[in-house]
Amino acid sequence: MPKKRSGGGLSPMQQAAKFLGVSVLAGAVMAGIALPAAGALGLAAKGSVKGFDEIPADLKSPQLSQRTTILDSQGKQIATVYSRDRTVVDLKDISPYMQKAIVAIEDSRFYKHGAVDLKGVLRALNKNAQEGGVAQGASTLTQQLVKNYFIEEAGDDPTKVAEATQQTLGRKIRELKYAIQIEDKLGKKKILENYLNITFFGEQAYGVEAASQRYFSKHAKDLNLQESALLAGIVQSPSRYDPVNDEAEATKRRNIVLQRMAELGDISQQEADRAKRAPLGLHTSRPKNGCITAVRGAGFFCDYVRQVILTDPVFGKTKEARAKLWNRGGLTVRTTLDPQAQESVQDSVKDHVYRSDAVATAATIVEPGTGKILAMGQSRPYGVNVNNGETTINLSVDQDMGGGAGYQPGSTFKPIVAAAAVEGGKSPAQEYSSPYEMAYPSPVTACDGKVWRNDPRRPEKLKNENDSERGPYGMAEATAKSVNTYYVQLISDIGICPVVDMAKKMGVARADGRKIVQAPSIALGTQEMSPLTMASAYAAFASRGTYCTPVAIESVTQKAGSRQKSLPVPKSTCSRAMSEKTADTISTLLKGVVEDGTGQEAGLGSRPSAGKTGTTDERFAAWFVGYTPNMAGAVWVGDPQHKRKMTNITIGGVPHDKVYGGEVPGPIWRDMMSGALEGRPAPDFHLVDLPDDSHDEDDQKKGDRGATDDHNGDTPGRATGGLIGGLTNGGTADGGPTAGALGGSFPTPTFSLPENVIQGQGDGGIGGIGGNGGTGGNGHGGRRH
């Protein structure tokens, strides 16, 4: 007659177990609780039966936490991460010696008893009564497996772990009933397999495969006799018998296991004696966990992937659910990281900026038309040792994804203004007087019918690099030379709102999550952005007007038993940010920047490229953002703390009086893109014929000074103009203009702002829109060029 399952009547085995629960469980010998046997039996008879009956019948085996493997786009491993280092293996992939050793030392009657070993219980009762404490336990492997299930379910929650291991009769009763159920459903071989995969072997190793790798650097199926005995002996007390820290104690315990195997007939006495004489033979491997183990400098990209899984609702509706998915592991995450591009980024970063330099660099490459992040790196390596130049702050991404508050992009924002103008109908031949010096035009329309006004009592002014730079200019020449007054006149003409709208369509947002301030100074790049944001925005130009949200994950599979199941992943959302004609016009303008303007040092030779330089006021940051039709990349150089100005500074072993966007970030961009694109197609842009905006003025009047970097975003010059709103009476734009000194390509600024108005140090404030004042500063205190 077949046995009945739990909930449908008790089988003889279950009835016997129930009897044990009433009569001997209180002795607690099943897990070795130190209670004298004599007084415990009566205690158990006072209600254990009811508690036993009321325990839910079904125990679901928990999904064991395992390591997660992160791969690049080619399927090569980037890093392994885990909450618990475990690799689940089938019983056939575990050495027979290991199987026999664990049974011999933990439950020698495993194949002869059911969920509870009655002889073992009586033997332990007798022994413990003689000793007056716990000399011997009686938990079967099945009961130990149940206990480990509870611990696994508790995860890293200390309260739940305490509940799972508390020495109480209630837990023992529950453990016993579930052991009966498991014994009935799984069978001996599966119980042994599960036990060997779940149990803790010390040194951060969970399960026999991880333990075998940790102590012997081999697979569990290859363990020999003495190695198996050593691992089996560790289980009882991983800290006491740790062979790494106490070889003598571990050896003694190993030999006990070997002798027990001989007594049971698993091996001969001669085999046991020979194995006892053998050295431990450790060949340890250090735990390899976390993004710090990432290859090719991909630690920050690895951390970005982690952030995506922890924050994107596609991986779970709640924060807790997503964290559980990540910590449980067992995932294989195939990412978008291109190994060739990543290696090129890291090589270029290391060549140009040293980890010990006073400033850092961060670089990102994305694929136009897909949003795929192809590479992400920085000069300061991933890690927690700040004294060694390490950091866990990802300088390439926004604050909510593990980055900082961002960096003002300077003139790399100007193409967004140009795109808004052209999309709105402005011709690239549009000329403005573009004087050497001017006040911000006022009033200027903003969004929602609001108006920005300059303060008539203290009007904010701006200047170009030097007084030879005088208009009129058209868009092409103004872009190549990065003429500040041209772009301020342009945004004042079309209004602030079209620029804010275009930025939104191109995914351009502040790295700290705050709204972009509506002021004409945004044309000069005063709002803090991240390199990933800027690279993704320029990718919209490369893809002829289509913006795609950045993505880092191609696919995720999760191990479920012996199967791999696919999980949903975030997808890039692509949308049209501008017409193809507008994007082609901007590409034509920015191709001129690389060929004849401030970005010549970033050129890729015969491969078509386009881009824009940027250098902020006080030289706290310098940029180059550029693209080809098949890759877009952004490079930022600066002090993440916004304290070190890049004047009289050595970067990458090269001294600089002043740092410009084309001079330091430009070559980094050139080298990283050259390597990333090597061997790949070199398509050309869809260029447009730009209207002739030249004039008959002589070269001196036009400021024909060649390819020189500008300081308000690119042009080195003397900082001047009004400070941010809140520092002026009525509020002005949160960025200021620049002026230039006569003579030379890179004149020396003769005016600098006080330290307390630099980002994050001043009280800035945002003035009102309309009325007596305009939109105030960016709230960070400080004006950047």
Automatic annotation (TrEMBL):
<dbReference type="Pfam" id="PF00905">
    <property type="entry name" value="Transpeptidase"/>
</dbReference>
<feature type="compositionally biased region" description="Basic and acidic residues">
    <location>
        <begin position="681"/>
        <end position="713"/>
    </location>
</feature>
<dbReference type="InterPro" id="IPR001460">
    <property type="entry name" value="PCN-bd_Tpept"/>
</dbReference>
<dbReference type="InterPro" id="IPR050396">
    <property type="entry name" value="Glycosyltr_51/Transpeptidase"/>
</dbReference>
<dbReference type="InterPro" id="IPR001264">
    <property type="entry name" value="Glyco_trans_51"/>
</dbReference>
<keyword id="KW-0328">Glycosyltransferase</keyword>
<protein>
    <submittedName>
        <fullName>Transglycosylase domain-containing protein</fullName>
        <ecNumber>2.4.-.-</ecNumber>
    </submittedName>
</protein>
<feature type="domain" description="Penicillin-binding protein transpeptidase">
    <location>
        <begin position="362"/>
        <end position="641"/>
    </location>
</feature>
<keyword id="KW-0645">Protease</keyword>
<keyword id="KW-0511">Multifunctional enzyme</keyword>
<feature type="domain" description="Glycosyl transferase family 51">
    <location>
        <begin position="75"/>
        <end position="261"/>
    </location>
</feature>
<keyword id="KW-0378">Hydrolase</keyword>
<dbReference type="InterPro" id="IPR036950">
    <property type="entry name" value="PBP_transglycosylase"/>
</dbReference>
<feature type="compositionally biased region" description="Gly residues">
    <location>
        <begin position="719"/>
        <end position="743"/>
    </location>
</feature>
<keyword id="KW-0121">Carboxypeptidase</keyword>
<dbReference type="InterPro" id="IPR023346">
    <property type="entry name" value="Lysozyme-like_dom_sf"/>
</dbReference>
<feature type="region of interest" description="Disordered">
    <location>
        <begin position="450"/>
        <end position="473"/>
    </location>
</feature>
<dbReference type="InterPro" id="IPR012338">
    <property type="entry name" value="Beta-lactam/transpept-like"/>
</dbReference>
<dbReference type="Pfam" id="PF00912">
    <property type="entry name" value="Transgly"/>
</dbReference>
<feature type="compositionally biased region" description="Basic and acidic residues">
    <location>
        <begin position="450"/>
        <end position="470"/>
    </location>
</feature>
<keyword id="KW-0808">Transferase</keyword>
<feature type="compositionally biased region" description="Gly residues">
    <location>
        <begin position="761"/>
        <end position="785"/>
    </location>
</feature>
<feature type="region of interest" description="Disordered">
    <location>
        <begin position="674"/>
        <end position="785"/>
    </location>
</feature>
<dbReference type="GO" id="GO:0016757">
    <property type="term" value="F:glycosyltransferase activity"/>
</dbReference>
